[in-house]
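Page 42, continued from yesterday. The earlier attempt failed because a stray header line got pasted into the input along with the sequence. Redoing it now with the clean sequence only.
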Amino acid sequence: MNLKKILSFSLGPIGVAVLGMATLPLLTWIFPQEDIGRISLLHVVVSFTILFCSLGLDQSYVREYHQNNNKPGLLLTIVLPSLVLLIMLITSVIFGVSSPSETIFEIKDTRLDLMLYICLSASFFIRYLSLVLRMEDRGLAFSMSQLLPKLVFLIIIVVYVAFPLKLDFFYLMLAQTVSLTFVFLLLVFLTRKELLLTLKQSYNCSELKPLLAFGFPLAFSGLAFWGITALDRFFLQHYSSYTELGLYSVAISFAGAAMLLKTIFSILWAPTVYKWVADDEDMSKVDDMTELLLFIVAIAFCVFGLFSWLVTYILPVEYNSVQYLMVACIGFPLFYTLAETSGIGINVMKKSLYNLYTSLIALVANIVLNFLLIPSYGAIGAAAATIISFWLFLFFRTFFSRMLWRVFPVKKLYIVTFCCMTLSIMHLFLTYDLKIYVYVAWLVFSLVILFSFKSSIIEIKEKIKSIR
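This time it went through. Structure tokens are written below.
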């Protein structure tokens, strides 16, 4: 993993984070909170569809890519079953009783229905075509596949502002549809050679079985994971309001800076570890990375905890409570990223069923907490439920990895992350006149982290110097 490769793969996530920080404040000034809540539901539905239709085969593609000599055949094997399932799903919705736009957005509009189908289809193909770029180490092209949907979306929003339009949810949906369609067509062009080779392959059913054996438990795990990250929106829609949903969606979007770390790390980490395993490398490298990442995660929590109030200067006044919500919302990407390192042993040992166990534990906790907290606390309850659920996700994924693969130190990881979770929940629930004590606690915790990770800071510098 050299510096050039890291930079090429990082460009997309960095660009997405920057554009997200530019787009979100603009949307809050143009569209009502209810419409921002609705577009958040669209993202949830799209992610569910991709997870459901993939059957976990996208993960099998990543796992088997370096060990398979017929890569176009491998691509055909994983895409065809997923595509058939997607077609069946959309067909059943088209001929269903109710309008999907009315069910999801509480707006009955045939145009919204059509755009929803286009978004689902385009996102499905973007997922698989971007995987081809990722596994071929075409970092710049892969980054563009992530960056361009946000860039095109932002350009369309700016165009809206320039014209005297009566903006409503239809225009938000149109911007999303156009941006996804554009990127889909671009990826078809960038992967045209691979697609032509894939279309010439004969389908081999015998190869599908072992791929499903690895990927199918991951599909259930992914769906459970989707539930942890998405059910809070539906609980807010049902037990609270679209206004609270919009507020919560904005807070989650501002956690995009933390999502940046998750995205970059997820792209690079798993393929790198699989190569280490294949080359019989020293696996203590994993422990070093976990230690370094724990330091980064703790500092990220401290920075958000101390400076989240700055967002009040770029959002309308009705979004002031976002500054408290966003600290807990970063728990999802940060704890998940840590779980990618400490829990990698599950995938190395090909015991993907334990990923499902981990996700189910966190999902049950999330459902119970959302049910208990959201009716009384709205977006605050949703944020608390999310960070607690993801701490449990981190705890059990680490526990199972240590049990299945190799013993490694975990005490420091558990203590530091538990403190991060506790302070974030205090940030949510303490009344305004007591907030000063939370900021003091974050400051003290920051000093403790800097002192206890002194050796890790030195190690980070050495590792950066060693990158060529």
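Notes: The first helix runs from residue 3 to 30.
Reminder to self: strip header lines before submitting.
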